[in-house]
Amino acid sequence: MRIGLYPGTFDPITLGHVDIIQRAMALVDRLVIGVAINRDKGPLFNLEDRVAMVEAECREIADRTGGEIVVHPFENLLIDCARDVGAGIIVRGLRAVADFEYEFQMVGMNRALDASIETVFLMADARRQAIASKLVKEIARLGGDVSKFVTPPVETALKARFRG
């Protein structure tokens, strides 16, 4: 069984993330969505909310593709998380050249820690390349329309968070 790990904070999950998840499902039998706890980033949504949003968004994808998607919170090293879930592939999404520089460094470090785990980069769909969770949160905070960047349930959660 080919197992992939797609890590991120998913704060919140965007249509860009969903695009990468859908395409990653063509490469693996089981995709583990690693929701990083990462206290340093100070997420807008707590871990339970982020996990619930990711699970909700992935249900239909798993049903449609016939693959298995598992949501797995983690706080350890990415390479250790990959080992924990039995992943032989780490899936990373790229939006722009700026992403590549950071990801290139991460791949080098991860390969030094465990050369048996490969990293696969998927380019975001051209319509989704500008989407970043940070920007989506800022637009929502200022009352802008985020419907082009997230699904309706996530949009509702963002509006509720900034209303309160």
Which features characterize this protein?
EC 2.7.7.3, nucleotidyltransferase, PPAT, five-stranded parallel sheet, 164 residues, Rossmann fold
Can you tell me about this structure?
The record marks 17 as: Transition state stabilizer. Reversibly transfers an adenylyl group from ATP to 4'-phosphopantetheine, yielding dephospho-CoA (dPCoA) and pyrophosphate. One of its GO terms (cellular component) is cytoplasm. By secondary structure, this protein is α/β, with parallel strands linked by helices. It has a single domain (3-125), classed as Rossmann fold, CATH 3.40.50. It has helices at 15-24, 47-65, 78-85, 97-113, 133-141, 152-163; strands spanning 3-8, 30-36, 68-74, 89-94, 118-123. Strands 3-2-1-4-5 form a five-stranded parallel sheet, with helices on both faces. The longest helix is centred in the middle third of the chain and has 19 residues, at 47-65. The chain is globular and about 45 Å long. The relative contact order is 0.20. The model has no long low-confidence stretch (mean pLDDT 93).
CATH architecture: 3-Layer(aba) Sandwich
The quaternary state of the protein chains shown equals single chain
* SS class: alpha/beta
Q: Indicate the percent of residues in helices.
A: 40-55%
Average pLDDT for all residues: 93
Number of strands: 5
Global outline: globular
User: What count of domains describes the coordinates?
Assistant: 1
* Main pleated sheet: 5 strands, parallel
> CATH fold name, please?
Rossmann fold
Distance between the termini: 44 Å
User: What is the C-alpha radius of gyration, as a whole number of Å?
Assistant: 15 Å
**What's the SSE pattern?**
EHEHEHEHEHH
Query: How much of the sequence is in beta strands?
Result: 15-25%
Number of helices: 6
- The CATH C-level class name: Alpha Beta
